[in-house]
Amino acid sequence: MRKEKNGMKSVDFRSDTVTFPTQEMRNAMMNAKVGDDVYGDDPTVIELENLAAKMLGKEAGLFVSSGTMGNLLSIWAHTNRGEEIITGWHNHIIVHEQAGIAQICQVMPHVICHENDFIYPEDIEKNIRPDDIHEPKTTLVSLENALSNGLVIPLDIMKANYEMAKKYGLKVHLDGARIFNAATSLKCDVKDIAQYTDSVTFCLSKGLAAPYGSVIVGNKEFIERARRHRKMIGGGTRQAGMMAACGLVALKKMTKRLKEDHANAKYIASELAKLDGICVDVEKVQINMVFFKFDKKKFNDKKFVELCKTNNLLINPSNDCEYRVVTHYWIEKKDCDLLIKTIKSCLKNKK
Ligand SMILES: *Cc1c(COP(=O)(O)O)cnc(C)c1O
Q1: Which of 210, 243, 215, 268 is CA-nearest to residue 19?
Q2: What InterPro entries does the database record attribute to this sequence (predicted)?
Q3: pLDDT tens digit sequence for 324-334
Q4: Does the beta carbon of 214 sit less than 6 angstroms from any atom of ligand 1?
């Protein structure tokens, strides 16, 4: 048992955003050197931004409230009003950010639809607008890695997309909320992914367990534009070093252990794959997410929901007979066993 669980009894499989800070983060927060970040003199924020930029191989970084704010500021800094951006149909900026890119950046999304949510170089080339007085200008490609369906885009596709974008003078932004998971899965450095982008947003507050924040990285000019916009939307913060201190622990420590979460996810998937009435594609479990479908005739879902309550298991409601389970720092192997056991006991034709 992780000793520092602070008396939390529930086993929370809903997301990796539920990760509360570790004891080391709480200590770091207590001892953080702070300044006023709007004046630009909070040393801990500066340290976090510099470390993030260095780790991702970019010139500069900017500490922001959330991944949503990071994507908004990035796309805003890269584009002008009325331009068009190529992105994916299920991408977070399309589905989960209240159309901020339309409301605030005033750009138009040109969405690519593929079943696995991948975007390929030919999609970019095909969908760039011609230089025609009637049409908007295409100026940016916005990608996601890892994808929210749990898949990771291989480096060769990242590279080919980047080269295609550059051939036509387009910028590339990456929503890398879980870029450290993607790098873990690809067994590469985050830099190897980030080299095929002009900017990246990543979250400290998901699998990296910090209580707050994301960082965007890119060149200095891009970061300065984003910094001005951040102030405009009320995102200039004062003693933000309290939060950045947790972010530093997240970057230094938590990025190195994500393979444990991935192994737990694989373990759950491979155990569930053995069950008649549960369908899971083990090959598609590439990060810390497992999606499994149940057969209504063979699985008592009502009982499962009740048993989860009794066993203190938290899981999001199913969608079209499909559940998503997410592993993270506060989930251990024995918690996975409890989930598997609970699922097994809800099969109708147990032998
Ligand atoms: C979580 C997430 C975000 C947004 O992060 P918040 O901090 O929740 O605003 C953006 N993109 C992807 C792919 C995400 O998973």
Answers
A1: 210
A2: ArAA_b-elim_lyase/Thr_aldolase, Low_specificity_L-TA-like, PyrdxlP-dep_Trfase, PyrdxlP-dep_Trfase_major, PyrdxlP-dep_Trfase_small
A3: 999 999 999 99
A4: yes
Flag whether pLDDT at 78 surpasses 60: yes
Tokens representing 329 are: 């720092």
CATH code: domain 11-15+257-348 is 3.90.1150.10
Is the CB of residue 68 below 6 angstroms from any atom belonging to ligand 1?
yes
Domain ranges of the chain: 11-15+257-348, 32-255
Distance CA 187, CA 262 (A): 12
Q: Write out pLDDT tens, residues 198-234.
A: 999 999 999 999 999 999 999 999 999 999 999 999 9
Q: Distance of CA 32 to CAs 35, 156, 193, 255, 334, Å?
A: 10, 40, 31, 21, 35
Collapsing DSSP to helix, strand or coil, 6 comes out as coil
Indicate whether residue 255 lines ligand 1 (CB < 6 A): no
CB of 97 sitting under 6 A from ligand 1: no
Distance from residue 140's CA to the centre of ligand 1 (Å): 19
Q: How far apart are CA 98 and CA 33, in angstroms?
A: 36
CA–CA dist 334, 28 (Å, integer): 29
Q: How far is the CA of 132 from the centre of ligand 1 (A)?
A: 35
Residue 203: φ, ψ to 5°: -95, 135
Ligand 1 pocket, residue 185 CB under 6 Å: no
- 0.70 exceeded by the pTM? yes
Which H, E and C letters describe 152-216, residue by residue? Answer: CCCHHHHHHHHHHHHHCCCEEEEECCCHHHHHHHHCCCHHHHHCCCCEEEEECCCCCCCCCCEEE
As a whole number of angstroms, the distance between CA 23 and CA 33 comes to 18
One-letter amino acid at 149 equals N
Give the number of the atom of ligand 1 that is nearest the alpha carbon of residue 214: 7
What is the DSSP pairing of strand 214-218 with strand 60-64? antiparallel
Q: What is the CATH number of domain 32-255?
A: 3.40.640.10
In angstroms, what is the span from residue 130 Cα to ligand 1's centroid?
Answer: 32
DSSP 267: H
